[in-house]
């Protein structure tokens, strides 16, 4: 299967998690459901990790700290905040509000992680903020409270995204497995302590299944899509996940389609497109670097030799980079984490 259908399937599965969680909240508390969803995600991503497991050096202290930050903020805190917001607002509105994550990731990257954002990117951030303000305006205080909770969750995921982007000693699948397993168990234990788990077995099984599909299989599909179609194309398709979630909420849950949702949705689309395709170009230097990730040899950054492998073939292994300097359009990925304070 080519990259586009894989990215599309990933977006549909991920987007469907919000309306599915809305139904499951009838039987589970926010902590219990967050725990089960992430444990299900661990089950869903585990086969990919075990299948592609490779030997690697032990993680250093900085990488362990970044992984810990991703687990706490992105795995433990963020899903609970989202589910509390989902309790008091329609799933369609909450799905659309998840577009905040793209803007939060970009702004946090600029302010704290040395990333750069051009004029189109800042316009995109502004559009997302405007849409997030418009969306709850017709829903009274419940809508405002929900927007604040979902916004806080997206800020946590923004930190999570920036932390995980700097983890270069583990594959994305392995990082996801650690995060979902640890965070899922943490929230499930906290949920059981705060309130006994009385949900029927079908509801528990459904929560695990949703997690396996929407947080496990979805991430595995996204990684495969990025390997085949490239990160930019895969991300541009995956960015549609919140909109799929809104459509599923309107169709499957039969929630009414509100005029403010349509207005905000249109603004969200414009903002996310501007953010997704924001690029910049300048001369920059790469220092010596050793790490593991999926790569190909026609991208200007991977010059080590594989005599029997075409330059366009993606593969994953531990490899070294020699110092180099060049100029080309780029985003803040594993190879471009230089600062932009003077630009």
What layout of secondary structure does this protein have?
Elements: H1 3-24, H2 30-51, H3 61-87, H4 91-97, H5 100-112, H6 119-134, H7 140-165, H8 172-194, H9 201-229, H10 231-238, H11 241-252, H12 259-276, E1 280-286, E2 289-295, E3 315-321, E4 324-330
Antiparallel strand pairs: 1-4, 2-3
Helix pairs in contact: 1-4, 1-9, 1-10, 1-11, 2-3, 2-8, 2-9, 3-7, 3-8, 4-11, 5-6, 5-7, 6-12, 8-9, 9-10
Supply the number of helical segments: 12
User: How much of the residues is beta strand, in percent?
Assistant: 5-15%
Supply the helix-strand structural class.
mainly alpha
Number of domains: 1
End-to-end separation: 42 Å
